[in-house]
Each structure stands twice: as C-alpha cells, then as structure tokens.
Design brief:
By secondary structure, the chain is mostly beta strands. The protein is built from no helices and eleven strands. It has strands spanning 3-7, 10-13, 18-25, 34-39, 46-51, 58-60, 68-73, 78-83, 92-98, 101-102, 106-111. β5 (46-51) and β6 (58-60) form a beta hairpin. It is globular and about 40 Å long.
C-alpha cells in the first residue's frame, strides 16, 4: 500500500522558515518523481514543486521559486520541502504527492 506521511508543519511568523518532510512507504521510492502541493482555505489544491526520481531536476511554481527548495533522500525514502521567507497567504495544508497518491497533509500557518 502506497503511503505518504507529511510532517513539519506548524505556526511560523511571516518571513520565517520551515522544513516539511514526506516519509514514503509501500513502493520503490527512487523509481518515482515526487511533488508537493498545497491547498489554502477556500482555494483549489495547487502544485508548487516537483523533483524527478534521481533528484537532479526540480521544478517550481513561479510564486515559490527562489524561496522554496524541494529535495529527496532516496536512501531514507523521504522527500523534503524547505520553505523560507514565508508569507501569510501561504497558510495552507501542504501535501506530498506521487502520481495519483496524496498524503493527508501537514498544516502550515503563517502569521503576519
């Protein structure tokens, strides 16, 4: 069974940083690209970053490029999202994704 478990969310002040983790199990982690999505209150879920299986190519949604970094440790079956200079409008539930699978998410609250 594919499982993706996010952690690392919490309350942070505007301008602050957080590291999210995604622990994967139930599949061969280094065979698949991984992405991070987020869903703000009242808004659609949006993709914000992705990384290929080998980990050497990444892509970012324009609003997070330069502030967020996606990475992975295939030996630990874990992906990460390092977020800096966070903004209040980035308050959302953040989800790890592999193809059609999503984790349950971790809540990030950015206070102004």
């Amino acid at each position: 069974e594919v499982q993706l478990v996010e952690s690392g969310g919490g309350l942070v002040q505007a301008g602050g940083s957080l590291r999210l983790s995604c622990a994967a199990s139930g599949f061969t982690f280094d065979d698949y690209a991984i992405a991070w999505f987020r869903q703000a209150p009242g808004k659609e879920r949006e993709g914000i970053a992705s990384i290929i299986a080998a980990g050497d190519i990444t892509n970012y949604e324009r609003s997070v490029a330069g502030r967020f970094t996606i990475s992975r440790d295939n030996a630990k079956n874990t992906a990460y999202l390092d977020m800096s200079n966070l903004k209040p409008e980035e308050t959302a539930v953040y989800f790890c994704n592999r193809e059609t699978y999503f984790g349950k998410g971790t809540l990030v609250i950015v206070s102004s």
